[in-house]
């Protein structure tokens, strides 16, 4: 990135001059991303909807990307900018790895992403914010970790679970009631899809599982074996089993009152 | 007033070439061979940290003999070129041919510029294709020329002798263990015809393996996996060695896997371990 800023600064997202503001800019926005950790790894998932104002811009957008072998990033906010940011982030991690011959630490990766979000602040002030969620497996500590960001690049590590995007309030509420420290990998996968379902239930900008078009959430899991994205069959299985239970109980599983 | 000595351009270039050749000849040689599933890099390198081979991009590997600081400089330049090009256009638009051209330009400029000393390096840029016919190997000598090589190539001190040895014995479709053994044989021949033993710890081995499921095909072969490949007896008979075998495989069962077996571990250890 430092090399790029010297060689061709115009290619970096932060260095573009902005046109004067004329009302809100209409661009596709991505919506809800959720993450939850379990002993031995972390799960990161996102819905498939992109909205432009009150219109659905895209039904099958992918918003969760591998950053490198042991980490992934999910994006909420202006889709175009976010995808570019992820691309640059992936490039930087790979470039560092090749030049130095060693991977960055997970903290290092998280900090790097923080700087990139901050460089987008001017855009964010005009309504083109990018707020990602970063999750990875920390090889040194042997556990999955989640980092959430605010629009100014502020970084905070989340313990257990986290959500970002317009449906995050509902997703977080859902996970708050369902999350336990000792979930297995499969249970955690179900947990995040439940949370996305709840987010889609109450937030118009978040898409639920689309059975007719066979569009299901993107679910990824990172363990000591590296990054893995669930294929369509696996992800549809989870979504369908949840859907079936919701036919009986539309609000989903209930936590005990006391 | 003193007149500078006249040196004819021929003489000046010959001197510079001589200087560079001597520098390269001091380094240990290394070889790059094609095998059935890709391209293997083998060299003698006492250091664990200072690599002679490295990954440039998804399908492109780099090998260098000569002065470390000079080829390291070129390597980082190559990684930057490749990453920038891949970011600007697409990952598929980064090719070994383009990279070799950039290296040739750089080396050629340095070689003929009177202000700088010529680089004492010889490079190999290799790209693995979807099939053996798509593999490309380019050798770049110190003066900026490009040689398009097929099958096998040797650079460094004893290069001529080693490459004639390899040319006679290398054939298409060798397994990794066969290619590796041939390479070690070639490297252990000394200039005076004697043979010496190179222990596995002093070998640096890396492959560009087209069967790797990841986008990045470069992988170093170290530790147990290397010893297992070197020990694989009668490797000619069995195509034993999918290089994507992980090192965590049981070392007691050499040659039981079929090519293309991929354990989940192999995904993990490729890019992370250096």
From TrEMBL, chain B:
Pfam families: Proteasome. It is found in: Cytoplasm. Residues 228-274 are annotated as: Disordered. It comes from the Bacteria. Pathway: Protein degradation; proteasomal Pup-dependent pathway. Residues 232-243 have a biased composition (Low complexity). Keywords: Cytoplasm, Hydrolase, Proteasome. The formation of the proteasomal ATPase ARC-20S proteasome complex, likely via the docking of the C-termini of ARC into the intersubunit pockets in the alpha-rings, may trigger opening of the gate for substrate entry. Interconversion between the open-gate and close-gate conformations leads to a dynamic regulation of the 20S proteasome proteolysis activity. One of its GO terms (cellular component) is proteasome complex. One of its GO terms (molecular function) is hydrolase activity. Residues 255-264 have a biased composition (Polar residues). HAMAP family: Proteasome_A_B (MF_00289_B). Belongs to the peptidase T1A family. The 20S proteasome core is composed of 14 alpha and 14 beta subunits that assemble into four stacked heptameric rings, resulting in a barrel-shaped structure. The two inner rings, each composed of seven catalytic beta subunits, are sandwiched by two outer rings, each composed of seven alpha subunits. The catalytic chamber with the active sites is on the inside of the barrel. Has a gated structure, the ends of the cylinder being occluded by the N-termini of the alpha-subunits. Is capped by the proteasome-associated ATPase, ARC. This is Proteasome subunit alpha. The lineage of its organism: Bacteria, Bacillati, Actinomycetota, Actinomycetes, Kitasatosporales.
